[in-house]
């Protein structure tokens, strides 16, 4: 779970960094807070033997409304929801699943894979 949550938190942090206006130290703290927030939130909803189980619960979503997990991490570093809306895409979907992290920007955007574990196909094909 650490690798997947690190990939997700790193991606959101990169979006903030690209938008500008947030200092590097604050970005680093945001990334750490978001990673920890995701790990805590997913603690009882992480099923490596059934990676798609709980996928909806683990979906991070901004759709003209801020995802509460991103909002919580931002609040921990003093970044307001209003500022987040200025910096992040208005529509972002981030799927954080065992062995894979993917995202889509916009409702009609393509799904892109951020992280895929080499174990993903091995575990699925072996029935593990």
From TrEMBL:
InterPro entries per UniProt: Anti_prolifrtn, BTG, BTG-like_sf
Record's GO cellular component terms: cytoplasm; nucleus
Coiled-coil features, chain-numbered ranges: none
Residue ranges annotated for the Anti-proliferative protein domain, each copy included: 88-107
UniProt record, GO biological process: negative regulation of cell population proliferation
Pfam family, one: BTG
Domain of life: Eukaryota
SUPFAM superfamilies: BTG domain-like
UniProt record similarity statement: Belongs to the BTG family.
PANTHER family membership: ANTI-PROLIFERATIVE PROTEIN DOMAIN-CONTAINING PROTEIN (PTHR22978:SF40), B-CELL TRANSLOCATION GENE (PTHR22978)
Protein's recorded name: Protein BTG1-like
